[in-house]
């Protein structure tokens, strides 16, 4: 019974393939009797119920069929009526179409007239607008609604243009043109109006362009107006030259530069960017417009630059570097703005140049200031020297070294301060300072070469200036001091300052321009020091010379008494030389002596040298004069030639040797011009002996002094009428007493 | 270069006075005056350079009145000289005098050598005494007679310099007649150092040196000062010389060791200033023919031959040269030292060019050494060619 439900199953009683035979077979085979009995009863029952169902269905369908037949009969009757009515309707419709055609044909004319009337109406409306246009325009203009007015006009313009040949329109057109002329005039007036802002201007230009005014003329006018405005600004700036620099630059930036920017921007907007595509010859116009603009901008900027640089020039002072730099930076930054707007020229270049010029000038001013300071310092030194000279000699002792160190130190500090001050120019946040052009030129030309090297040269030149023949009143101590100063610079300061400069301004490195080597400066310094020292020696030598010369020239050597003392002038000479020695000793090292020996041995040595000559003279006889002359000549042959006015070394003994040489040589020459009596000779003998006793300690080579003094004495012997020398023992006593 | 053909002639005495024999234009001759305080020993040597130029001939004239401080020969006569000398008075004090002397005629030296003297040259002859023509009476004007200089062309005029006076004498007669005198009036009683006639302007000017200045006096106008270079040197002016060929140009030397060249129309600034000596400059002399050559002598025992071609009268060298030659062969002499001569051992107080030969000069040092030298050949050819 599993597949009872299957439709194709022949055992399904409700299926179409039901096979009663098989079904019964199966039922009989598979079921008990009871079950078969039951089944039979079931089937019977089902058959009965089905039968009754069928009966009811048939009955029902029958009834329906009958009613349907009735209906068909009825319909047959009704359709006949309908047919008639339909015919009637067709006829009616025909009639209706006929009449409607009649109506429409009658109404046709009227409709045409109507549409015509409508057209006339709109035309009239437009005409009315046209007729009203002049009045409207003037009203608008009165209300200053220029934009609206232009809009209106442009609206009507085409009509007016088309029908312009008709008399009535001509009147209108004329009126309009007059009014528009007025409008244009007003717009132009706006140009000329000084109060008008750039925005208003731009608007006006825009309107005028819409009114198809010639663009190039407008450009020119626009620029002309802008010019008056900018000139005004510039004039204002010019008047404010006295203002604080920062304020000045700010004013220039805010007033002039921003206006210029605005002008350029609106010009670009109005004429170049907007118009160009529309124009036929757009390229031509663009170049023309750009040309006009650039010419204009260049002229303004030039003036502006001129103003700024003149103002900057006025500003320059030593103390205001910071302000200057800040102002320059602001100025430079603002230029960047116009540069972005106006690309044809790099204004920052000019700006950098101005900054560079300012930098250079600042360097120069600093140099001047340095020179001034140096001169002042020198003057102070001179005054101090003069004061101490008046006050007394022992007081000027300690101050000379102090003066020197303070002078050198002050100069060094000043230079360093100046460098520090100038470093402001190189602050990394400065726009112009970042430009290599500025950096190189400023660091190398301006600071290193111009300022530092220039100042060094000035130092040597000033120092050398004191050697010039015109300077007679220079205190010798000053020469000495300056000489030592030059030496100090040579040994340390030059290099120190230059390397300091190079460090701060990285000037010495990688620059194309030629830089002065420190060695060159050092050589200069040394040469200057040498010159000064030589001059000092000559001056001091001259002082000693003058004393000795006067002492020889003014005395009557023929009528002099027997010497009892050393002449005062010799003591004076020794004192002066000692003073010079002290003075020089303050600044210069002792230096090398030819030989060193103890005081006592030196003394005996000197005596022995003298004694070699003395026997000749003391036992003087007329025949022996020639021999002594020959002796001295031989002595000269074997000793080195003595240069009197020669360069001296940078040491105390060398300097003093130079001075003493000059003095003693003068002594010789003066003695040779005089004639002596015996006592005159003896006086000279005493004097030279005295000098010999005291001068050796100052010189490098005592033999030199001995030689010169012997020369003095032998010259005197030659110039003596009665050459008899004094006993050495007496001479010693006199000298020791003196 | 400096010592080619130098001839050294030694005097026995110290000497300062040296002068060329001006009237002699054939032979190279110099007068030398000795300076010895044994007054009677003093001599005047007339030194002549031999043709072969390997030795000198000398004539020696005793000058026994005193030691000679300066000699100045007559421009017209061979045998006339003036000397300024220091003599001893009876009170055994010294006195400076100046006299005009006539040399004994030259035949006298043919008589043979004197026995008293030992000669130093091959021809060393002692001559008869000098004849004192006249004595310049300067005693009332001062003590120090520096020089008695002959007029450059007129042998009858002599200018003596005494202290701060210059006295013009007429010696055409047998006695010296004082014709005119001039005085330097200034505070501090300055004395003249030396004086010279200016050969220009028809010899109407006399130039003197005193202290640091060089002054010119106009002899026509009552001996008024014509021009003055104040402070020519920072110390004493020892000597000066006037460019013989170019007006207004003078050279000066002084105690500052400098040699300076002046255009006297601009006395404030020297045209050239040189500092080649290491001590005082005692003498400065222009070459008479080639005034670009200047000699200076100094107490540093040196002699310096300097070129000042840039301010000489012949700035392009030799005037006779044609232009072609001048372009190709003639080198223009540069300014500066041409040669340094250091044969002297003592101060060289005087130097003089020869009158006869423009390339020869003599220098005298205090120890009595007379050196006759020549301009280096290279320089000579440079100027000549």
Automatic annotation (TrEMBL), chain A:
Biological process annotations from GO: endocytic recycling; Golgi organization; Golgi vesicle transport; lipid transport; lysosomal transport; protein transport; retrograde transport, endosome to Golgi
Coiled-coil regions listed: 72-99, 184-243
Any single Gene Ontology cellular-component annotation: EARP complex
Annotated compartments: Golgi apparatus, trans-Golgi network
Keyword tags: Coiled coil, Golgi apparatus, Lipid transport, Protein transport, Transport
A UniProt-annotated Pfam family: VPS51_Exo84_N
Predominant localisation class: Golgi
Transport listed as a keyword: yes
Family, per entry: Belongs to the VPS51 family.
Subunit structure: Component of the Golgi-associated retrograde protein (GARP) complex.
Entry function: Acts as component of the GARP complex that is involved in retrograde transport from early and late endosomes to the trans-Golgi network (TGN).
Protein known as: Vacuolar protein sorting-associated protein 51 homolog
Organism: Frankliniella occidentalis (Western flower thrips)
Designated gene of the protein: LOC113218160
UniProtKB/TrEMBL annotation, chain B:
Bias (Low complexity) ranges: 119-128
Leader peptide range in chain numbering: none
Keywords of the record: Repeat, WD repeat
GO biological processes: protein ubiquitination
Chain positions of WD repeats: 230-272
PROSITE patterns: WD_REPEATS_1, WD_REPEATS_2, WD_REPEATS_REGION
Transmembrane residue ranges: none
Residue ranges annotated for the EIPR1-like beta-propeller domain, each copy included: 5-305
InterPro entries: Beta-prop_EIPR1-like, EIPR1, WD40/YVTN_repeat-like_dom_sf, WD40_repeat_CS, WD40_repeat_dom_sf, WD40_rpt
Entry superkingdom: Eukaryota
Region (Disordered): 103-128
Keyword Oxidoreductase: no
Family recorded in the similarity comment: Belongs to the WD repeat EIPR1 family.
Entries under PANTHER family matching the protein: EARP AND GARP COMPLEX-INTERACTING PROTEIN 1, WD-REPEAT PROTEIN
Protein name per the record: EARP-interacting protein homolog
